[in-house]
Specification:
The chain is mainly α and about 150 residues long. The protein has helices at about 10-30, 35-45, 55-60, 65-75, 100-120, 125-135; strands spanning about 80-85, 90-95. Helix 2 (about 35-45) crosses helix 3 (about 55-60), helix 3 (about 55-60) crosses helix 4 and helix 5 crosses helix 6.
């Protein structure tokens, strides 16, 4: 039986999960507050000055309800807080607490270590080429009828 050809979107999803699983396992081993994959993703898209739940949902590519559930869990864990938006009386911003900042820095160090492990496995040149391709200007996604 011949292996199924996997498209690039599937491969990128697998790569993302590799990093997410490595991050969660390392955080757990360090005794950090346990977080779910959607909560990990939320932390990755959260602005330093804070973001609204709607903005987080859009960046994560999930429903507002899913983003709200992830926020609620992280607020309960003491990693995030909701504060009034100084530019709008109707909006609330989600931002990291002091403990959330510490966890964010710890996660950044773990991700750097995972990149080093990946470079050991596939070679530093491959990691550099992958980074260059992903950081390049892709433009907006094509729409039907566009070139």
């Amino acid at each position: 039986m011949q292996p199924t050809h996997r498209n690039l979107a599937q491969l990128l999803g697998d790569a993302r999960r590799w990093f997410d699983e490595g991050l969660v396992a390392s955080l757990e081993a360090a005794g950090a507050t346990l977080v779910s994959p959607p909560q990990v993703q939320l932390f990755a898209v959260l602005d330093d000055q804070g973001s609204t739940v709607s903005e987080l949902a859009r960046r994560m590519g999930v429903t507002r309800q899913t983003a709200h559930q992830a926020v609620h869990g992280l607020v309960g864990a003491g990693l995030l807080e909701q504060v009034p938006d100084p530019t709008s009386a109707r909006r609330r911003l989600i931002r990291r607490t002091g403990e959330g900042e510490r966890a964010h820095r710890q996660a950044g160090l773990i991700l750097e270590g995972l990149e080093e492990r990946l470079a050991e496995r596939i070679g530093p040149e491959a990691v550099d080429a992958l980074r260059a391709a992903l950081e390049g200007p892709w433009g907006r996604p094509p729409s039907p009828g566009s070139q």
